[in-house]
Structure formats: C-alpha cells, structure tokens
Amino acid sequence: MAVKTVIEAIREGMDEEMARDQSVFIMGEDVGQRGGVFLATDGLFKKYGADRVIDTPLAESTIVGLAIGAAANGMRPIAEIQFADFIAPAMNQIIEEAARICYRTNGDLNLPIVIRAPWGGGVHGALYHSQSIEALFAHVPGLKVVAPGTPADAKGLLKSAVRDPDPVLYLEHKRTYRLIKGEVPDGDRLVPIGKAEVKRQGKDLSLIAYGLMLHYCLEAADTLAAEGVEAEVLDLRTIKPLDVAAVIATTRKTGKVLVVHEDNPFAGVAAEVMAVIMEQAFDALDAPVMRLTGPDVPAMPFNHVLEAAFMPSPEKILAKARELAKY
Amino acid sequence: MAVVTMPQLGESITEGTIARWLKKVGDPVKKYESLVEVITDKVNAEVPAPVAGVLKEIRVQEGATVTVGTEICVIEESVPATVSSAAPKQSAPSREEQPAHTATAPTRNGGEEAHGRLSPAVRTLADEHGIGDDELGKVQGTGVGGRISKRDLQDYIERRGAGAGKAPAVQAPTAAPRAGDEVIPLSPIRRSIATHMVKSKQTTPHAWTVAEVDMTNVVRFRRSVKESFKQREGVDLTYLPIVIKGVVEQLKDNPRLNASWGEDKILVHHDFNIGIAVSIDDGLVVPVIHQADKLSIAALARATDDLARRARAQKLTLQDVQGGTFTVNNPGTFGNILSYAIINSPEAAILSMEAIVKRPVVLDGDAIAVRSMMNLCLSFDHRVMDGANAARFLQGLRRWLEGVSEQLPLY
Hints:
The complex is a heterodimer.
Chain A: E1 2-5, H1 6-20, E2 24-28, H2 44-48, E3 53-55, H3 60-72, E4 76-80, H4 91-98, H5 101-104, E5 114-119, H6 134-138, E6 144-146, H7 151-163, E7 168-173, H8 176-179, E8 181-184, E9 197-200, E10 205-209, H9 212-226, E11 231-235, E12 238-240, H10 244-254, E13 257-261, H11 269-281, E14 290-293, H12 304-310, H13 314-326
Parallel strand pairs in A: 2-3, 2-4, 4-5, 5-7, 6-7, 10-11, 10-13, 13-14
Antiparallel strand pairs in A: 1-8, 6-12, 9-11
Helix pairs in contact in A: 1-7, 3-4, 9-13, 10-11
Chain B: E1 2-5, E2 15-21, E3 28-29, E4 34-40, E5 44-48, E6 53-58, E7 65-67, E8 71-77, H1 94-97, H2 111-115, H3 120-128, H4 133-136, H5 150-161, H6 188-203, E9 206-214, H7 216-233, H8 239-253, E10 259-261, E11 266-268, E12 274-276, E13 278-280, E14 283-285, E15 288-289, H9 297-312, H10 318-321, E16 326-329, E17 349-353, E18 357-362, E19 368-381, H11 387-402
Parallel strand pairs in B: 12-16, 16-17
Antiparallel strand pairs in B: 1-8, 2-4, 2-7, 3-6, 4-5, 6-8, 9-19, 10-11, 12-15, 13-14, 17-19, 18-19
Helix pairs in contact in B: 8-9, 8-11
C-alpha cells in the first residue's frame, strides 16, 4: 500500500490493464508523445508503443466512433476526451450507437469501451474547461457513468470499467487529480461499478456526494463533528446504475439527507437521488430532503469571485447541513 | 400474515385487558369480524379482524393487560379465490390495515395543534411505540419552531423507558397489607380513576369557589311540569338538565371556562360538550353530552337519562366518553352541601351541584323567608383563568337559575 494522487492511480490502472490484456489500448488527443494534457498517460507511449497509445485528430466524434468499431472487433479501447466540455460532438456516437448497440442486436454485440473525461470546476478553467456533464449521460439507458473521488476508487473503478462488457463513461474530477492523495492498495483490486461507499459514519444526517464534492463534504463533516453533529458521508462513486440500497440505508439511519453536486440542479443527479428517497424511504424522513448544487446558469464564470459563487464549497455545505441538523 | 395489535381505544387510553377471545386458533375469520373483547379504562370494545383469513396465533391470553400497540394475535390471510393471479399484491396489507385501529386512529381532539406537524420519521416512531397524540404533546420539541424531531422523540422514549416519564407519586405512599386486611385487586376502571385523579391533582393548580343559589323558582317550576313531562317524555325531569342549560349559556359568555391548558397556550373550545359524572359499581364514569348548546332542556333530560342508564349497564361507546370540555357533577343527590371536586383534566373546570335544602334567608326587604338553597361549587385550573372569571361565571349562573319562571322553554 502506497500513497498516490488520483492521476497516478488512474495511470497505474491503465498501465496494469494494458499489461494484463493485449486488447486494451488508449486513444485520444495528445495522449501519445505528449502523455495527455494532464499527463494521465505519461510514459505509456514509451512503454507500449504507438500501436497501443494512439494520438487522434481533434475530433471527438471520430474518437468515440473509432472506439466503437474497434470494440465491435474484439478490442477494449480506452478513449480519452481531453475535457468533458468537449464531449458534445461525440454525443451522437455515445448515445445513439454505443449505448444502444447491445439492445439493438438483441444482446449479440457488446461494446467494452471506456470513455475517460476530465470534468468539474474550481480550477479557473471558465466556460470550456469546468463543466459537469454527468446528468446528460446518466439519463441514457445502456450507459454506465462512474465518478470516483479517491485514488483507490479511481484505480479500482478504472479496472472494472475496462473489464466491463459495455460502454462506461469514466469521469475524473480534474481538481482532485493532484489535490487528493490517498492510500491505494497494491495488486489487482477492483472496485465494483454500482456500489456506493460510506466514507464516514454518522447518525444525525447524511451527506451524499461524489467527485470533488465528496472531499468538501468530508471537510464539512469534520466541522460538524466539532459542533456535536455526526454527519454520515456517502460517496456514490457510480452515478449510473445508482446504488439505491446504499442511499436508502443511510436515509433510514439518519432521516435527514443533503445531496451535493456542482452540476446544476434541474433534472440533475440530486433530483434522482431525492426522488428515490421519497419513493422508498418517506416514512424514515425527519426533514425535507435537501440539495446543494451549482446554479442553473449557462456556464462556470472565469472571474474568480463569480467562480467561487458558482461552486459549492465546504462552507456552503456546512451552512446547509447546519440548517438540516437544526430542522 | 397480518399482526393485530392492541388498538388505541381512546385519546388517553394506554393499555387494554383481553377479556375474552371470540375466536380460537385455527378458526377462520372474516374481515371486520370481531376477534376479541377488550376492557379498557373507559369502555369495553370488540376488536375487529383487519383482514380475512385464519387465526394463526394468539399472543396475549385472556386476563392479561398490555399496552397499546402490543401484538395480540396473528392472522394468516386467505388468498381471495376469485383473483388468484393478483394475490401476491395482497401479501402485506397488514401495515396499511393496522393503523386504522391503532395509534393513528382519527381520534384527534385538538392534538394536532398541540404538537405541530410531524415528520414521517416521527410519526413512524410514535406508532411503533404506541405513542398517541396526547402523549406527543408532552414531548419537548427542539427543532425549528418547536418541531418534534426524531431525536427528541427518541430521547423521550429512552427517558420514558427508564421510568422517568411515569408519574412517580402513583406508587408513592402505598400501604403494606396487615393481617386480616381484605385485598381488592384493582379493576381497570379503579386504576384509571386513580391515575387520572393523581395526574390532575399533580399537574393542575386547583382553585375553588362557591356560590349560594336560591333555587326556589326552579323547584317550583320543576314541580309544576314534572308530571306532564314524565308522561310525554317517559323520563324524569331532574334538576341536572336545567342546570346544564344554564351552564352552557354562561359558558358562552365566559369562554375561558370552556378551555384547556396546552403548555405554551390556552385552547378555547367552541364545542360545548358537557360531561356528567355518573357513579357505577365501584367507580365513576363521565359520559359526555356532545354539543349541549344545540339541545333543549327536554333533549338534555333524555340525553342525561340515556347516558346514565348506559353507563350503569356498561354499554357506553368510545364516542360517549370522549371530547368533554366541561364537567357537571351532581353529588347533591347524596345530601351533602359542599364538595371540592377534582378537575377532569384536560378540562379547565368542574361544577358541583350540592343538595337543595330549605333554609331561612334574608330577602331584599330584610324579610326572612324559607327558601330552597343550593351551593354551586366550582373547581378551576388557575393557569387557565383567575378567580374573577370563575366568579363571573358562577354569579351569571346564579342569576340565570334564580330568574327561572314558568316561561322557561322546555323545547
């Protein structure tokens, strides 16, 4: 067991999968010689060569389209979208083709594709380098969406995504890349897709989050503990399929739930989590289910003051959680 | 499998005694068919089956007293023959069926206002522990606007479990039996009277006052219509319905006497539901004349006669003993002239009619005459009102009774 950053864990995961399985290969913009803009694939070009770490044109539709073709012919591509903000041109390939082929072929054809996409804000990235896109894709049946927050989960979920028979959208929060360090178990350890994890036990209220917001929630929970409020923090890890059992379990335990994400609220992941709670754990609720999210505005501003106003923060979570605790 | 629990058969009822099982284990039961007779503090009732099926297990034997919410028997549900394919959907109706008979029964009487809105979690927890609306009013809420949070209720249940929530003085001065003593086991009604009297005396600051009333006119009036009334109505015209009529009129003018103490507020009732104390074998019940303000003296006479009869025959229903807002006691029939009644909480006052006795009285012109005199004693909750309210009420009632003439309408 060693302490690693999120980006190191992702790189290590890809490295181990490529070494284990000859059909695994990487493609994307600047992933080869350059090692990726965030250096996620750093060193892999040298180790596995141009045949298995492939630089592509700046054409997201092509990247995913090629991945679909390769997967249909027995390969296991890892397609990198340089920023999640740029995934829109590939939406037709992802939604209309990748997500539906298994259904369309009556189960004859699976597409074991991993689409990696750095997402999220708080890095002064402004409009085109800060977006959250999980709700758009979580809505699509046939697609799995994962959003690990810790190095261990990042590596374990990457391995699971590569081995999954169907397309997985793998979201990596770019602010966590080097900010978050943590123990990563040695060896071939998989984190199952579709399983949330309680990252902190508590009995007074539940904070449900993923990605960078997991860490903000943990930070808020520390402060709450000093105030005598024991917050439970549930890390969804996988957005789709949602771990409903874990959501219901923590709701039944505390009776008070706050869902946090930086994506905008309308028809977002929090809305779905809240709906599930209302349907299945209404009798356990001791307060209205609450959410704290980014605002319904077109994009993350570049102005640092406005960016801070846009992003949920540990302080904002704390204020909302206090309100919930007091209810 | 439907589990039947001891139902809450009244606002303040917390336990019931299994009198008799009407079904044996293995017997088929129809939905709503009576399963068991239950004796409670106030009334006897039959508990209906929430579902159709077969009585599978009896968990509480005859004679045992258990708290509300205790599981008393299990019914194995029968699969409706006509809709066999839809049967699995019926597999768990017990949770939906039960609340109709348990703590959430619609017996709320201002209780909702007393504790505010409850979250689903609090409601669920209260049901699980058989905590009714009355008892929820005692839970200290620490949430926004005094809301009872789940934790508040958990804390309350913990304290209650530790015995802190029980009235301590109930078991305080008890005597050890001496040689030759006869030991009388407590009947549910005896125990209920004991609990309620102790609770009222402990929690309500009683104040007491008396008015002396010249009943001569009332006595004359009654004597003049007694015979014809009995012939027409089939019941005796006693003094009680006449006094109740006067009481209701005065309550309208003095609403503070038709009220209840609500910890942080006073609840003034707009219904005039008059309880009348009726003594029965080794006990006392207070059936209620609902909306007495809408009844004539004749109707009040029939109502008091009917309630007293049914009380002695132990045929009172739950409805009969619930919802009282003021009580009239008539110990005068025993001949005494003063009594200090204990308030029937949560009501705010109780009136006692004492014996009507002939006495020499000094009249307005300083003449001395023999008049029929009666004392009206009033015990009242000094939190809800002060002596002035009580005096205004009693003097109003005195004037009303002294002003009775042949013109007093019976209908």
